[in-house]
Amino acid sequence: MRTIQALFLWESNPVFSEYVLGRSSLPLEPKQLGLWPSNKGSKLGGDCDPHKQHLFDWSKDQLKKDWPSLEMRHKSNPPVPRIDNLRFWGEQWVKHGTCSVSMLDQYEYFSLALKLYNGINLREMLRKESVIPRGTLVARQAIFDAIRKHMKCKPQIRCQEIQNQYYLYEIRFCLTASKDPKFIDCNTEFVGCSINPEVYF
């Protein structure tokens, strides 16, 4: 394992929320999406030990608040989660957490994910640079520069195309692979974004 990526899903746009998550309204806050160790050079690894499926019974209140299962079953009324939280966390552990077992046990993996999420106030750092989510077009470079200024590292901005429009999808941070990871520059600054310098945000 050489690096770790912390992923944040930006929920602010109702069009994106409906098409990607299957739900029409979400709070205007970024949510924890994942903590993905890489054990294959620059590529993200997964399913390193599919036999380690047991999720230890420790307090899950904070996970429920900060790392819930967001994806809904499409066309369900009222909206119903695709999978419940416990199964979602189990999937995250099996697919990504097991790639960190040489360094982080299960408790440390989830604790690190929550520590990173609660230590990165994306909404506030963007607000300080007058980058406010309103569901309108925003220069993606402005989003990148605002985050870089406050985090002192290059994030990765990921876009999603929906009906010929590009929406902010994820904000990723790259970290060293250790029990006390440090933020480092991501190699790629923009992924899935059009040549148009603006994205809906």
TrEMBL record:
Signal peptide: none annotated. It comes from the Eukaryota. GO terms for molecular function: hydrolase activity; ribonuclease T2 activity; RNA binding; RNA endonuclease activity. Pfam families: Ribonuclease_T2. Gene3D superfamilies: Ribonuclease T2-like. GO terms for biological process: RNA catabolic process. GO terms for cellular component: extracellular region. Keywords: Endonuclease, Hydrolase, Lyase, Nuclease. Belongs to the RNase T2 family. PANTHER family: RIBONUCLEASE 3 (PTHR11240:SF75), RIBONUCLEASE T2 (PTHR11240). This is Ribonuclease T2 family protein.
